[in-house]
Design a protein that fits this description.
This protein has about 150 residues and is mainly beta. It has 1 helix and 10 strands.
């Protein structure tokens, strides 16, 4: 086999490997409270002039009905409910025994007053508070999202 074919093959393999490393990794982050599991808090990338972003996540393994009542992150000055249950505070019922979603096609949390652009593939600190499950620190991933 001529040398240019093996060099070309090596170049193509190297480029394919580099491209796969450049793409954001899928993140299936799970966090447990005393009452439920939170799976994959995520938001989409934003431009430099964006002032808000939609925060989505899934709740399951709910052993006791609970409420999400706090969302804090250094990437936003405040948060509110958006979508079907829009209101100026965070208050989201999570029923026992059900899978519940905060999703950009239904009810979600809107992060307001973004302090910086959100970059694809990055993760940022996130603090979630539940009425019964307590407060815990986690991260929000910036990716393409979707649960269903």
């Amino acid at each position: 086999m001529p040398a240019h074919f093996s060099r070309r093959r090596a170049l193509h393999t190297g480029l394919a490997l580099a491209a796969s490393l450049a793409l954001p990794a899928a993140r299936a982050c799970e966090f447990m409270t005393s009452t439920l599991r939170v799976t994959h808090p995520w938001t989409r990338a934003t431009g430099h002039d964006a002032t808000s972003s939609v925060l989505c996540m899934r709740f399951d393994e709910v052993s006791e009905t609970d409420r999400l009542i706090l969302v804090e992150t250094p990437i936003a000055t405040s948060a509110e409910m958006g979508g079907a249950l829009a209101r100026p505070e965070v208050d989201f019922l999570i029923p026992q025994g059900q899978e519940t979603y905060l999703d950009d096609s239904g009810t979600f949390v809107r992060l307001l007053g973004l302090t910086q652009p959100l970059h694809l593939g990055h993760s940022y600190p996130l603090r979630l508070g539940f009425e019964k499950g307590g407060v815990f620190n986690t991260t929000v991933s910036v990716d393409f999202g979707r649960f269903r």
